[in-house]
Amino acid sequence: MNGRTTRQRAAVLRTLSTCQDFVSAQELHALMTAAGTAVGLSTVYRALRELEATGGADVIRDEAGERLYRERPADGHRHYLLCRNCARSRPVDSEVVEQWAGRIGADTGFAAVEHTVELTGICADCQPPPRPDEGELPPCHWDPARNQARSCVS
Prior knowledge:
By secondary structure, this protein is an alpha+beta fold. Helices cover 32% and strands 19% of the residues. It is built from four helices and seven strands; from the N terminus they run αααββββαβββ. The chain has a three-stranded mixed beta sheet with strand order 4-3-5, with no helix packed on it. The chain starts with 6 loop residues before the first helix and ends with a strand.
């Protein structure tokens, strides 16, 4: 973190580093308070904004537009797939996105191009189990006379 590193800001960094998924400033503040760390919510917000500005945190927005934070790994910027139900996140291979953003900047003459890519879905744990009557329909029919599959559309 740039600027003055206070005991509280260091505690924000430590607590954020223990979170496996993205968290809001309020959630981070609640975790710190529950652990006995005396820190104001405004200090948490300031520390998170500074981490974002200096590249120490990845930031996404949830469906309501609230900013969620996660410590950025030492190897740099990442993109995540975020579950819309439980907010669990998973890093995804995004080299093609990084190359595309670089190419767009070079092609247009822009410098210091930044980008935001948000991928959301429903994780396997949050998906309801299929009901027995909703089984997959077979994509084709078996034709015993020909001993082969027959297309459903023909």
